[in-house]
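ingest -> fold -> write
write: protein_1
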Amino acid sequence: MSGIVFFRTEDEARVVEFYRERVGAETWLEQDGCTILRHGDLKLGFCGREETDDCGIVTFYYDDRERVDELYERLEDRARGPPEVDEQYEIYRFFADDPDGRTVEFQTFLHPLPGDE
């Protein structure tokens, strides 16, 4: 089983370019008025519409801090601040804004995940 999270966007081309060029997602499926991107196990669909869905948080997680730091360097102009440790959730992360103003989080867990031990 797997799934896709879809978002409406007023500027499909710009948003898709951001996730492909800046985040590293790949086009999984191109449809009329909708582009579905894949980044690891995550699939995101962006569909051109007359209004934009900008609620929620899209989170990308990585195996280590170095990868989060690399993404921060690539996205520093869109980041809300540098990566930091969140003790409550035991993660290292930073937040950024995509071209629609949607919140995007880039993180790594500070402890092994179930099945990774």
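write: protein_2
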Amino acid sequence: MSSPLFDVWEAASASPYQPTVGKNSQFLIGSVLLFAAFILAGVFGLNRSFVNLSLLGVPASLAFGFGAVYMICAVGVYV
């Protein structure tokens, strides 16, 4: 007698998880995203307007968020 959960477990063992960004490139991608966030936030800080909020502010905050997570994972602190 087999359970459905065991069948799913066996099927998943045949195809292991492959991340989109490999472990060896997390530091580079994190560094690039944090640098881009720093530049975008600096330009946004110099010229603030409602239009620049969507063009510079949102991408800067997203780049900082993802860059911070990639850097945390790259140096060995897992969230």
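write: annotation protein_2
Residues 50-74 form the longest helix (25 residues).
The mean pLDDT is 88.
pipeline exit 0
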